Structure prediction request, 628 residues.
Amino acid sequence: MASMSTDRPRWPWWLAALVVLVAMLAWWWPAAPEPEREPSTEASHPPAATARRRSPRPPPRHPGIIEAPSASVHEDVQAPAGALAGTVISWLDASPVPDAELTFMGVGTIHSVVTDHDGRFVFEAPEPGPYTLASVLADGFLPYAPELGQAPLHYVARPEERVEGATIELRPELELVVRIEDPRSTPVPGAEVRWLGIGTGEAALADDDDTYVSDRRGELRLTARLDAWLEARHDPLGVGRARVDEHALSVGTLVITLSPDAPAARATIAGRVLDPVGEPLPGARVLSDPASDEPSAEAVTDEDGAFVLHDLVPGPHRVEARHPGFAPVWASGVPAGADALVLQLSPGASIVGTIALADGTTIPGATVVALRHTGRLARASQAQTTVFDTEGEYRLDGLPPGTYDVIGGAAGHALVRVSSVELDASAVEVPLVLPAGGTISGRVIDERTGAPVPRARVEVERSLGAGASVAPLRASALSDDEGRFEIRGVEPGRCSIHAYALDHVPRAISGLQVVPGADAGPVEIALRPGSDGVGERFDFVGIGVMVRVDGDALRVTGLVEGGGAERAGLLEGDRLLSVDGVPLSELIDFGEAVQALRGREGTEVLLQVQRGEDEIFEVIVIRSRLQG
Prediction:
């Protein structure tokens, strides 16, 4: 491997400020004896704010900045304090990223290494102890630059031990055409567009506060930021918001429809954010997530801790405040128009533990996610960490009190899930033991010709929150030249897999039953040809409903035309209470409930349905192949 330290760092100006915060790492290295030896265009702004070049369109995927790691430990006398070796790859096609600069922050120190032409790096720690990955920068890629103190990759350096297997993904700068339309689909020139919510998480220090303006065709070009929201506004038409999802990234176009009712979209919520001792907290980020599931609005507090959220839809909102070093705090049911909301942050609690196999062997590289219960079936990803440590130790800090599910995983192993962990203001120890998993193998072919489809990505759907997967715990494989694939370490039970390939329509296969030590395949996945996903977003088998969590049930929010649910007479607003005789309240979460609705094409599912307040009935629905 040919990585090197650099004396000419490309650090952004803010990185120097990290030095004052490195003492926050002390909890990673307590005063202990030292070991003796880790299924959802011109810009009128200056050209510098647009994408530098057009990139090829990627197949849709469920990405995470860091894969569930596959780490190994090696004795290395040439690394007296320890070393971490890995690779930086492109999210687009898994190709290596050369000349990427990785900056690690330790206790009182900052160090930088650069990848070689194969994207490989070796970070040789100057001293034993804890380090976090503070940033990754590479030309042509969006920077990885998480909130201070919130970096999700940690490495614990131990003397004369080298940990290998840190695979880090960077998202390329992909150009996105944003089209602004009124409610009648007419292009809107002169609309102002800005990003929402990109100043949190892994892009916190790569913020973009600029305002962009649509051209005479109602369009503009931006560098895409997956999973971020864009907000458009135009007087007197109103405000519209849309999320950059995988489909938008795949086809290169995002449409934002402005609200038909401008006055209704201009409500505000105002208030202040305080620190744990009651002092005003400047620089806190405040986000609103209304109960109607509309996109978020956001603001940043001023010197007095004050904020104003603008352009809110009428009705109740959930307002959350975040600041590095503290646990987030929120208030639910806040009415639009409130002007004296006070949110006080707290230091938060911790979840700590080890991750190992059933025989006690520790896992030197693992990812752990904490999901907070927000309802009977709903979960929200509250924190995550990817840890490289030969002792298999992990730690999640800054968590608000509540009930959590803790999920851990590593490449080639099934996930472990510890449910209903109660967390107050202290630390809770949660050991994670990875169970034996199963295998899913098969072949991807072209539906029209029967020819194999090479380099298709086949991925196990892991819904770790209330809705789409939010965790970087992927179980996936790329098909070979014959279209064959094999995914190992899949957790037992019912699951779905997704297949994506360039020039083909993505498809989901459901109803697979995974058994430990066995192969659920062979599975044949036939993909329809089609280079443009517009109108053909996804092929899947299901009953044809869109649902959301509603207490201990699922409420139908939409029906797919021609689907089994529509044919069986289901209506929007119906509540699904049980599936095949199993009450939804007995299932783990939203993800398991959705898997229960899916299955093989042509099979039946028995639903118990509530319509209105009193009417409860059962109906049999036929699963069929649909286009979403």
Q: What stands out?
A: The chain is about 5% helix and 45% strand. The radius of gyration is 24 Å. Confidence is low (pLDDT under 50) at residues 1-67, 199-206, 465-472, 532-536.
